[in-house]
Design a protein that fits this description.
The complex is a heterodimer. By secondary structure, chain A is mainly alpha-helical. Helix content of chain A is 50%, strand content 0%. The N and C termini of chain A lie far apart (76 Å). Classes of the chains: A mainly alpha, B alpha/beta.
Chain lengths: 131, 112
């Protein structure tokens, strides 16, 4: 049934198209980690970022602090898959957040919020700092 | 919050002290310890919204430290939430200090 179908070349073309479509879906899944990331909301992510206390160490803009050893989350956060893996499994100063504590949808929203944060203006654009 | 009497002492003895307050509205230090223990038990430590995990935040209601200082005889201004308001507030406070009075500027900051 799934072998070459010389008698029906149109069916063969259809199968090729379906195969390519499946590859595209797989590629998108690999790029975004899971379906939750595709439907993520930056606005809800900001709410979740505050709700789960992320801001207390990472700052409200994900810009980092002494508590994060100066590491910044935004702009340009880690790809979702790496970000998610770290949050779920870290064993450093930051404790791991299981899916039970921080659901996947909320985590994807938080990543969307961090991804939406623009780069800051250059410090020379601030009059007091350019004196 | 721990030793507010020092404000009264400075006003009483006219000590020209400039205090620019780093008001981060929380303790924050034990935050990860609280979350680690909660995660261990599959619990959410946070109370929701901007309340923060139990025992780590001093907000809602926010303490009006500038009014607190005023009640003890200080010149005070705040809460400063917009960076653009900071420079004029500090200039005012410095002028007060140069006149021989203590001054406090209550500035809202990031938590850490």
């Amino acid at each position: 049934m799934f072998g070459p179908n010389r008698a029906n070349p149109r069916g063969t073309v259809m199968r090729h198209l379906m195969f390519r479509a499946a590859l595209a879906v797989l590629a998108a899944s690999a790029a975004f980690g899971d379906g939750a990331a595709l439907a993520a909301s930056a606005a809800q992510g900001k709410v979740a970022f505050m709700k789960y206390g992320c801001w207390q160490c990472h700052g409200t803009q994900g810009h980092g602090s002494v508590a994060s050893n100066g590491k910044v989350l935004a702009p340009d956060p880690l790809p979702y898959e790496s970000f998610s893996a770290f949050v779920r499994s870290t064993n450093g100063a930051m404790p791991p957040y299981s899916e039970h504590v921080l659901p996947n949808d909320d985590l994807a929203d938080i990543h969307a919020y961090l991804s939406s944060i623009p780069k800051p203006n250059d410090h020379t654009s601030i009059p007091l700092l350019s004196q | 919050m721990y030793a507010p009497g020092v404000l009264w002492t400075a006003a009483k003895h006219k000590i020209p002290l400039l205090a620019v307050m780093h008001n981060n509205r929380g303790y924050h230090q034990e935050l990860m310890h609280v979350q680690r223990l909660s995660s261990f038990r599959n619990r959410v430590a946070n109370l929701g919204n901007d309340m923060g995990p139990i025992g780590t935040s001093i907000m809602n209601p926010d303490i009006e430290y500038h009014k607190f200082a005023e009640s003890m005889g200080w010149w005070a201004k705040g809460p400063i939430k917009d960076p653009a308001e900071l420079e004029p507030a500090i200039k005012e406070a410095v002028a007060v200090v140069k006149s021989g009075q203590p001054a406090l500027v209550n500035v809202w900051t990031q938590p850490r």
